[in-house]
Amino acid sequence: MRIAFHATMKPPTHSVPSGDRQMARLLIGALERGGHCVELASALSTYQRDPDRDRFARIETQAAQEAARLATLWRREGAPDLWFTYHPYYKAPDLIGPGLADAFGIAYVTAEASYSRRRNTGLWARTQMLVARSVGRAALNICFTRRDREGLADAVPEAVLDLLPPFIDITGFSAKPAADPRRLVCVAMMRSGDKLASYGMLAEALGRIDHLPWSLSVVGDGPARAEVTALFAGFAPGRIAWHGRLESSAVADILAGAGIYVWPGCGEAYGLAYLEAQAAGLPVVAQHVAGVPEVVVNGRTGLLTPPDDVEAFASAIERLLTHERERIAMADAARCFVHEERSLEAASVRLNAMLPKVPAL
Hints:
Layout: E1 2-7, H1 19-33, E2 37-40, H2 53-77, E3 82-86, H3 97-104, E4 107-111, H4 122-137, E5 140-143, H5 146-155, E6 161-163, E7 183-187, H6 194-207, E8 215-219, H7 225-231, E9 240-244, H8 248-256, E10 260-262, H9 272-279, E11 284-287, E12 302-305, H10 310-322, H11 324-341, H12 344-354
Parallel strand pairs: 1-2, 1-3, 3-4, 4-5, 5-6, 7-8, 7-10, 8-9, 10-11, 11-12
């Protein structure tokens, strides 16, 4: 099929790396592995951090112009078979795809759409309505987590839903060199909100096991770098290694040389970095919150601790640092889990099984 692809929050061509950009690229890769021709329909982002009606009006105008451009193009060259929108939600609704799908009689599909009733205030009430309308209009809504699927089912009972678990490209994670079991690692952007809260919880937890001979590699950068480094200022020199932002191959090398992946995951939608760590053969210590249980199998590929329980989080890290046999068993299970169940190839097979069920293809 010819598939018109649109990521409402951040296009896959964006210069700044993020989980959103990575998943958009992974979806395109999975679709192309299935034999489909994927075209980036528009690089327009409808995202806005705060509810600004004037800015949203400008975004609506830009979206209308994009829709008119595509309509002219399709009348001249032919319309695609399907429109595929990634990550429409209240801060980034799809303002282009539904109208074009209706006008040209093509199938409309979303992936990782989400809906939260607590956002139904002010401008967000309107954007939530647009998301719900898109979800209800879609021939298929592909959910990455059970939480998102339940939220959509509650808000839009008529929605057609299916589940595609989060996945990664396992290229680069094929070999496991000898790792330092005492080396901890985390990979995360440094920004305010949930990320900074996770860094804070990690620093506090590590302070409670300062008597153990661990070291920590931190991969990531961002506007909150000063606040993050301040959180770890009390540790002895050499304990923390700051690597900054790295290319994916360098990240894979650092993961491969470590023993345990540690990241609380406050408010994490799911976290592709957890899958990358497990693909490298690292067990994970995280909180049992949000979408984290969708990518870490508690007791099998890692340990998930109760939300906001710093003592439990610290104890879980200590447990894997001091119980070598359990750490090795979880490391092997983590690697098998991702390579066998959460690879790009596995996702492509699942997607190919879903799309023929979409009406009007």
